[in-house]
Amino acid sequence: MDGGVGRWVGVDVGGSKVLAGVVTATGEVLRTALRRTPGRLVAAEAVEDALVDAVTAVTGDEPLAAVGVAAAGFVDRDGSRVVFAPHLPWRGEDVRDRLAQRLGAPVLLDNDATCAAYAEATYGAGRGVSSMLLVALGTGIGGGIVVDGGLWRGQHGMAGEFGHMQVVPDGAPCECGRRGCWEQYSSGNALVRVARSRLGVEPTVLTDLCDGDPDRLTGPMVTEAAESGDLVARAAFASVGRWLGVGLANLVAAFDPALLVVGGGVAVAGDRLLAPAREALEASLVGAGHREVPPLVPAALGPSAGLVGAAVLAGATV
Amino acid sequence: MDGGVGRWVGVDVGGSKVLAGVVTATGEVLRTALRRTPGRLVAAEAVEDALVDAVTAVTGDEPLAAVGVAAAGFVDRDGSRVVFAPHLPWRGEDVRDRLAQRLGAPVLLDNDATCAAYAEATYGAGRGVSSMLLVALGTGIGGGIVVDGGLWRGQHGMAGEFGHMQVVPDGAPCECGRRGCWEQYSSGNALVRVARSRLGVEPTVLTDLCDGDPDRLTGPMVTEAAESGDLVARAAFASVGRWLGVGLANLVAAFDPALLVVGGGVAVAGDRLLAPAREALEASLVGAGHREVPPLVPAALGPSAGLVGAAVLAGATV
């Protein structure tokens, strides 16, 4: 519904950003509010404060009908708790009920990439497609699976954790406690790490953008530098894109989907990311040349996909 | 049907063996016949000769009602051709129609692991389970996917090629033309290669079993040696088992199934393979400790699962 007894709001809670938006029943985003995620080494309540703050900013005095929370973590089967989240401090807290109490509205909690996959399949790049994989490149990698026209959430609601598939034995350490996870090579964090490793080694505008302090380098700085033609930034995108294609080849070997959709903040770079990814996908996919390689396309709903899916899933329950 | 207008026969065509069997409508195997696969560098007809020979041996003078062929390769969507098979010479030939003509009965052609997954889900280890992954360890690794109680074959019929997911960048070369595929580290071929690398380095009964010629070492020799307590053979199983667990952790991160079923010839080793696999799965799975780890069980139908599934799928069409 629109404007009647209250608004549908979706909130995407990622490792770096909390993005809230008012969403219509047709998946349109009317306005958004952005807050920083306070990090993963803070009290759980600090993330909830940022979330409530963003929701309040986006709704103002309007009544709330339902709030959907798309969280970057494992959500339990009944949708009440985030049981584990590498980039967030939530560890089994009853987030849904605590937020419902603070916001005074029913709250639906789901995995962020599952929400994004639902939104892309319903309103976005996957409309009319009977199978697709969504890979969301943000701080890490999230994933969502559509088969036979519907979401496959997994037997325990934990499917789609593509980012923690190991691609390099004894590789780079991951926030999840293991090593060599795909998201260490293809994500916003990976983009920054690759670029950072060249600071002081090669001339790059990134040195100025981060005021000479490698620790202050961010993903958006690398995106901006790549757009202005900076070679170090472009090489970082090429590396992240190649690893994206290698990991996607593994997923296509396993699932054989009709379509691959890439979302998340890093995907705004478009073909700077997707062109090397397509090349690596073709080169890495078993049987390429003897089979159809699924199209690799950017998410149509951009960084809002997660909050749109969460809002619409939440709205459908009230 | 049983005995009326003819027999249902299933044939599993793998990289090393052609195994044919007469199968009842309840999935029971009445008798089998085994032939060697002539290899992948021969004429396509040579494999078909071995197949027809095995079918004839198993049926004798009895009439054939339907033949199901479970092939270790990519089968096209309408089930008429094997478009690509790393371990077989078939490359796009119309295998189904050629075999139907030679055998004088309708032939159904499908991927071997898909057939095995169907059989295990219907009659075997996965009975009553709504989602499972089957991993078949033979010459390579085949895979089958059950979600929401039914087979997921992929958009183009090519899902489940788990063996060609890359687990080691620039790793061991694979018959598929790429490098570092999972089946190079966890399969019958991998078992033999690991054991072979220790011949002449450590004392082992394998040296006698293969008459001192490493090229004559086979998987069954390693299995036999491991049973007799040979440490080199046991270490080979432990290595293949650990890699099995690492790859399964990747698949569980992606699919979150209720059950993992391990079939194929290598799985007859039981816990010698599955114990190290379970340990590696627990250690490698993202969020382990915060989630249910699916049980990892041996296929109940053993090496016959593929031919049983093929026969029953073929019988259902006549």
Account of the protein in words:
The structure is a homodimer of 318-residue chains. Helices cover 34% and strands 20% of the residues of chain A. Chain A is of the alpha/beta class. Chain A has a 5-stranded mixed beta sheet with strand order 3-2-1-4-7. In chain A, strands 10-9-8-11-12 form a 5-stranded mixed beta sheet, with helices on both faces. In chain A, β11, α8 and β12 form a beta-alpha-beta unit. In chain A, α7 crosses α8. The longest helix of chain A has 25 residues. Chain A is globular. The interface between A and B is large, with 49 and 49 residues.
Mean pLDDT of chain A: 94
User: What composes the largest sheet of chain A?
Assistant: 5 strands, mixed
User: What is the CATH topology classification name of the largest domain in chain A?
Assistant: Nucleotidyltransferase, domain 5
Q: SSE order of chain A in H/E notation?
A: EEEHEEEHEHEEEHHHHEHEH
Q: Total strand count of chain A, please? A: 12
Number of structural units classed as domains of chain A: 2
Structural shape of chain A: globular
Query: Order of strands side by side in the largest beta sheet of chain A?
Result: 3-2-1-4-7
What proportion strand of chain A?
Answer: 15-25%
Largest interface: A-B, 49 and 49 residues
CATH class of the largest domain in chain A: Alpha Beta
- Per CATH, the architecture of the largest domain in chain A is 2-Layer Sandwich
Question: What radius of gyration of chain A results from the CA coordinates?
Answer: 19 Å
Structural class of chain A: alpha/beta
Uncertain runs of chain A with pLDDT below 50, 5 residues or more?
none
Distance between the termini of chain A: 10 Å
Helix content of chain A: 25-40%
Oligomer: homodimer
Number of helices of chain A: 9
